[in-house]
Amino acid sequence: MKTPLRYLAAGLATGLLALAGCSTAAPRRTLPVEVLLTPAVVPTRPPEELAPPVPPDVARGAAVYANKCAACHGDAGLADGPRAAQVRAQGSLVPRLSNPDTQRAAEPRAWFDLISRGRIERLMPGFAGSLSAQERWDVLAYVWALGAPPDALQTGQAIYAQQCAACHGAQGRGDGPQAAGRAMLSFADPNWLAETSLNEMIRAMQAGDGDAAHPHAALQLDDAERLAAAHYIRTFGYIWANPDDARAQVNAGDGVLTFVATNRTPGGQTPAGLPVTLRVYGPDSEVLSRTATLDDAGVVVFPGLPAQPDYFYQPELIYQGAKFFAAPAQFTDTRAITGVLPVYEVTTDPSVIRISELHFFVQSVRDGFITMVEFYLFDNTSDRAYISQAGGSQQTRSVQISLPPEAINLRFDGPGLGERFVRIGNLIYDMDAVGPGVRSASITMFYDVPYRGARAFEREVFYDLGRWDVLMPEIDLRAEGLIDRGTQQLSSGAIRLFEPAELSVPAGGVARFELAGQPRGAPAPGEDGRAIGFGLVALAVALALGYLLIWRAKRASVDEAALAAERQRLLEAIVELDQRREAGQIRESVYRKRRAGLKQTLREIWE
């Protein structure tokens, strides 16, 4: 079964939480008194970050929002995007951007700053590095439009024409016939737009209550009418469009995708009459989804798609309780693509599952905690997809792995809790089926546990385990109870390998070791923790599947067939890395280092 595209992209939560790297505390330095007495230089902000250089445009903002925001906040700002469940599982809530109270209270410039900086504690990244200032104002305009439905604007327009235009002018420029001799502000002034919330506009309308001399004394409006008028007044400063229409325009095009659901289990029936969900991924996240139904021949067609060259399109289908994915498709020089959506008959027999490899990776030790990564590779020895029996929540489950009771900050490389995984006590269940074949599924799990000079690890395995080991950077730490295979000098750095005397563990057994020592500060090999959090799968292929086999090959303990298989795996890892780079899913600097390491490993094996 093909690896879903969603597993190749870093999940929002993983990218933010997988920060690593050890450091030693430096002595605190005392600042010279002359430094303390020198006035601080306050950097000036570019004018485009104080107010929009041109009126923000809802139509432009809809495209930015679809690519950067909808995955968490949802198309209509209802906090129901495909990543919202994962964020909730990490202990945070995705705000409802269309919430009336939020819309009323937010000062536009403060909201712009939040978009720019992000909110790390709430798992929201900042976008100052990936969006221009104008794009950030445009996406804010789209959010304003989500809270300003057409009927409210129509009401506000009528109120403005009757009670405001005489002074403020038909276009809000302060040039109405009754404004003569008075200084009137312009609602089209970008600085006023950036500084004024809806609540401030409402308070200005209320200022005349009880004051017969106030210009607003004649206004006779209730709260809903004042809010409608405020929404309309704001449109003088930005280019409003119906957000539903703007979103439809972003999601429309002339691309057509046709997929044929094919049952690859011998004798299996052709799926028919089942819903298929097409997920469309932009460079940063899922941008839209469509649903259609298989016909009697197992064919489903998705017309009218935006044929963006940087979009990937991947259908998914639930068959016999298991979710199946097609290989991601991409429009290049054609507007019509046909693909295959493979499915399998389902088995619930756990004996068909085997863990071919389990690697414990010590990512970092700092602040009294150790960050561990566990990398699992699963084989399915049958010709059917494996799922286990549904649990009490009726969620589909497949393989399970155990988790240390004290583990905190649990995260995964790719979709996490609530999206791909579910946690019940100290057990983690994968909600995706495991397709037939060798290495047909993998899990990469991060967590932190307390560490004070030593810590025992006991990890129950629920399936036959072929091989396991412990990997760590070149730091003063050791794995007691395991054989120290020494330090391997790699093109990307140094890594230490520890192996048990008996590599395999039967189902129901325990992989057991103890970490001991007081490590000195050292980063993980090859790249800092942020890159590991993003591309750990590629790193694990290079380390666990390549370097370890090199170590054994040098001791003449690996036959030529195994080396040939390893060459093939490394070639596939390079191809996958290239695809991720072409899809914009990995930084160029990380890509170059990873590819160089894989090539060096391949060269050493070939020699």
Structure description:
With 607 residues, the protein is of the alpha+beta class. The protein has four domains: 90 residues, Cytochrome Bc1 Complex, Chain D, domain 2 (Orthogonal Bundle), CATH 1.10.760; 94 residues, Sandwich (Immunoglobulin-like), CATH 2.60.40.1120; 177 residues, Immunoglobulin-like (Sandwich); 82 residues, no CATH class. Strands 9, 10, 13, 16, 18, 19, 21 and 22 form an eight-stranded mixed β-sheet that branches. A hairpin with a 4-residue loop joins strand 2 and strand 3. Helix 4 packs across helix 9.
Which stretches of 5+ consecutive residues score pLDDT under 50?
A: 5-42, 521-562
Helix content: 25-40%
Q: What is the name of the CATH architecture of the largest domain?
A: Sandwich
Radius of gyration: 29 Å
The CATH class label of the largest domain is Mainly Beta
Report strand %.
15-25%
Number of discrete domains: 4
In CATH, the topology of the largest domain is named: Immunoglobulin-like
Look at the structure and give the mean pLDDT.
80
Sheet of most strands:
8 strands, mixed
| Envelope shape | elongated
**Cα separation of the termini:** 33 Å
Work out the number of β strands: 23
Instruction: Please state the structural category.
Output: alpha+beta
Number of helices: 18
Describe this structure in a few short sentences:
This protein is of the alpha+beta class. The chain has four domains: 150-239, Orthogonal Bundle (Cytochrome Bc1 Complex, Chain D, domain 2), CATH 1.10.760; 251-344, Immunoglobulin-like; 347-523, Immunoglobulin-like (Sandwich), CATH 2.60.40; 526-607, no CATH class.
